[in-house]
Amino acid sequence: xxxxxxxxxxxxxxxxxxxxxxxxxxxxxxxxxxxxxxxxxxxxxxxxxxxxxxxxxxxxxxxxxxxxxxxxxxxxxxxxxxxxxxxxxxxxxxxxxxxxxxxxxxxxxxxxxxxxxxxxxxxxxxxxxxxxxxxxxxxxxxxxxxxxxxxxxxxxxxxxxxxxxxxxxxxxxxxxxxxxxxxxxxxxxxxxxxxxxxxxxxxxxxxxxxxxxxxxxxxxxxxxxxxxxxxxxxxxxxxxxxxxxxxxxxxxxxxxxxxxxxxxxxxxxxxx
Length: 272
Prior knowledge:
Blueprint: H1 14-18, H2 21-30, H3 35-54, H4 57-78, H5 84-100, H6 104-119, H7 127-139, H8 152-175, H9 181-192, H10 198-216, H11 226-236, H12 241-260
């Protein structure tokens, strides 16, 4: 029998235990979109549920480890899921750092750095969703802050709510689809441009920010029509040929990206 974790006494936490089912359910739902994130979220639900039920060192270690894996898996997803091996190695490294320097403040600080990086990848409309994941991390400390003058059942309830909120947040992050062209280009830049050279990235950003978004940015991707693109091309027709061709090429790439992300639109290929 595994020893009881010395950081906390064995306490009955029915709400915090049962609400981990949310991680298992939503993890299974996102596996089709990103198998690694889904798999890690399912493991997180199992680990956190075991920790809240058994309160042993094994489950405590498993729970904390899956937290780091989950945060870094989300960060990797935000960059196009292109760095799976680095994500795995970074997760192991952070778990090791945690047990070398065990501190709740260090945990929160490292998680904050990761989540600020994640938030920067998306339009402002995603911030509240991603904060939900951060609330989960902070909530790991809630039941054990004995200086809080609150009945333990209230802390258990608060922790359980944070589990459900965070599970929904993860599901929304993975299942998110841009609605406006501006949000589409924001996702395109965060996923596609990260692997380009500085010069190529600046060229994309110039075309997107100065030529495409001022005209198309506020429009719903689903309802952009050929006439909107025609108006865009008419507006830039007097500019240098390199600019015109750059707009056509980049717009095609963005539309191809949208199709690959399962985002519906009415537009055909622009550049003939």
